Amino acid sequence: MDTAPLDAGAPTHPTPSTPEETARYIVAQAIWAPSVHNTQPWWFSAEGLRVSLYADAGRRLAVADPDGREMMISCGAALFTLRLALRSLGYIPQTRVLPDPAQPMLVAHVSWSERAAAADFEKRLCSQVRRRRTHRGGFDPVPLSPPLLAALSEGAARDGATLRIISDGGQRAVLAAAVDAAEQAISLDSTRVQELVMWASPPGSPRRDGVPSTSYSKRAEHTDPDFPGRDFAHRLGWGNPPLSSARSPRIAGVVGLLCTADDRPADWVNAGQALQRLLLTASMCGVAAALHSQPLEVPWLRELIQDKLGGGHPQLLLRLGAVIQTEASVRREPGEVLR
Ligand SMILES: Cc1cc2nc3c(=O)[nH]c(=O)nc-3n(C[C@H](O)[C@H](O)[C@H](O)COP(=O)(O)O)c2cc1C
User: Fold this and answer.
1) SS3 for 230?
2) Is pLDDT above 70 for 3?
3) DSSP-derived 3-state class of residue 292
4) Which of 134, 192, 216 should be mutated for ligand 1, with most atoms under 8 A from CB?
5) Hey, whose CA ends up nearest to atom 18 of ligand 1?
6) How much is the mean pLDDT over the chain?
7) What residues are in contact with ligand 1 under a 6 Å CB criterion?
8) Is the pLDDT of residue 8 over 50?
């Protein structure tokens, strides 16, 4: 893996020297991976020079994610971060994804025994783990560089996924309409709304999981085409105040669809690894991402997207762009998830 630590801005830490310290350090990084509704659907166990990552089925979205697809994408993102953190310490991670068919919740074993100095690129990538934040809203009207987009696509391929950049206006409009239709369908389904309410915290909540009101803006930003965000605020006016009262024109940004050739748990884990590589690479270049999984949680919309756009099984829809970020997020303590 060409990906490790931590330059200015990352929290300072004593270099771990024992296997236990190494396990604690890499888990403390992995928990900053993105996860659907910040469910953090994972737990870890450590034994010698090996950490095992498990999906926590109790944190799966039973209504929105009955097959655990998004849970596995989230775990894949944590797996990539675990590997990257090992590289940052100069270890070569050895990874076995879904190693035991009898234990479908065992996502991966990651072990380390050999060393190779971390490349500068890997260190810079790892320095983004705690800085990266999901963006919700529009982007500044600044074009993204073609070499960056090419690097993101190449990175996704390395993890067994495909990043399709959707630049055709008609296809962008199809995807925006699918997000809108999904938002409407979700808002009319009381079980879905209740599930979202469970994972969206009110202002001042001490919770260390779920989507805090500090992670989105009070004022929904519309773009053309418009990709509506999730209604985490339940129309109660929660969220960060706008940066300024002036409404600067915002754009939807570069639209991308992360796809896989197949649609099995291993593909979902791959998609998650590709997602985190992509998000950290973008973040390293000052580019943020907004994630939209709403239409992929509605089976007929997911099929429609696959039919209209082709290119494999859609796993995540995202938008990329430049923006000053104000979002904050929360995580449970590493000690809670390292058993
Ligand atoms: C599979 C998956 C689906 C997601 N879907 C959405 C989404 O539809 N809307 C959204 O605002 N964020 C979405 N997110 C982002 C999470 O809400 C976010 O990662 C989490 O709240 C933690 O915040 P952070 O990414 O800023 O650390 C998704 C993340 C993952 C991994």
Assistant:
1) coil
2) no
3) strand
4) 134
5) 34
6) 94
7) 34-38, 70, 73-74, 77, 133-134, 136, 211, 215, 229-230, 291-294, 316, 327, 329
8) no
Q: What is the distance between the alpha carbons of residues 45 and 9, in angstroms, rounded to a whole number?
A: 29
Under DSSP, is residue 75 helix (H, G, I), strand (E, B) or coil?
Answer: helix
Q: Token pair of 60, please?
A: 């799966």
Any idea what DSSP says for residue 24? H
Residue count of the chain: 339
235 φψ region: left (φ > 0), alpha (ψ -120 to 50), beta (else): left
DSSP string, 188-236: T-HHHHHHHHHHBPPTT---SSSB-GGGSBSSPPP-SS--PPP-TTTTS
Q: Which of 291, 294, 323 to mutate to test the pocket of ligand 1 (most atoms within 8 A of CB)?
A: 291
In which residue are the tokens 């884990």 written?
A: 269
Give the residue carrying structure tokens 């791959």. Answer: 270
Ligand 1, residue 292: give the atom nearest the CA.
Answer: 8
**Per-residue pLDDT at 245 exceeds 70:** no
How far, in Å, from the CA of 293 to the mean position of ligand 1? 8
Which of 29, 31, 32, 37, when mutated, tests ligand 1's pocket best, judged by the most ligand atoms within 8 Å of its CB? 37
**Closest ligand 1 atom to Cα of 35:** 31
Instruction: Classify residue 143 by its DSSP letter.
Output: P
The model's pTM is 0.96
CA atoms within 13 A on the CB side of 319: 27
Mean pLDDT of 24-43: 98
Give the distance (Å) from ligand 1 centre to CA of residue 34.
Answer: 6
Coil vs helix vs strand at 211: strand
Per-residue model confidence as pLDDT tens digits over 90-146: 999 999 999 999 999 999 999 999 999 999 999 999 999 999 999 999 999 999 999
| Atom 4 (ligand 1) nearest CA | 36
pLDDT for the residue numbered 246: 59
The gap between the terminal CA atoms of the chain, to the nearest Å, is 26
Which residue in 184, 178, 167, 216 sits closest to 329, CA to CA? 216
Burial of 188 (0-12, 13-18, 19+ CB in 10 A): exposed
